[in-house]
Amino acid sequence: MHEAGYELGNLDATLILQRPKLSPHKEAIRANLSSLLGADPSVVNLKAKTHEKVDSLGESRSIAAHTVVLLMKK
């Protein structure tokens, strides 16, 4: 991304899982993502949702991640 002349404009990630509960870990995950991407933490948004005990996500057999990224030319 940086070598191609882009920087992170915004990252919005939603993790879908029953457990573990991510609330105690959200800031650490956000800080790690920011560090790995070389971005300011203010442009990284992380949300966690459950799947209300429906299908493999809700039965704690899998997790899913939905992420949207905006890249901006430097």
Global mean pLDDT: 89
Biggest β-sheet: strands ordered side by side in the sheet: 2-1-3
Strand content is: 35-45%
Q: Report the radius of gyration as a whole number of Å.
A: 14 Å
Q: What sequence of helices (H) and strands (E) makes up the elements?
A: EHEHE
Largest sheet: 3 strands, mixed
Give the CA-CA distance, first to last residue: 10 Å
Note the overall shape: elongated
Total beta strands: 3
Structural class: alpha+beta
Number of helices: 2
Fraction of helical residues: 10-25%
Q: Stretches where pLDDT falls below 50 for ≥5 residues?
A: none
Assembly state (oligomeric): single chain
Description of the structure:
The protein is 22% helix and 36% strand. It has 2 helices and 3 strands. The protein has a 3-stranded mixed beta sheet, with helices on one face. The termini are close together. The model has no long low-confidence stretch (mean pLDDT 89).
Index terms:
74 residues, alpha+beta, 3-stranded mixed beta sheet, 3 strands, elongated
Topology at a glance:
Elements: E1 6-16, H1 26-37, E2 44-49, H2 55-58, E3 64-73
Parallel strand pairs: 1-2
Antiparallel strand pairs: 1-3
Put the structure in a nutshell.
The chain has 74 residues and is of the alpha+beta class. The chain contains two helices and three strands, in the order βαβαβ.
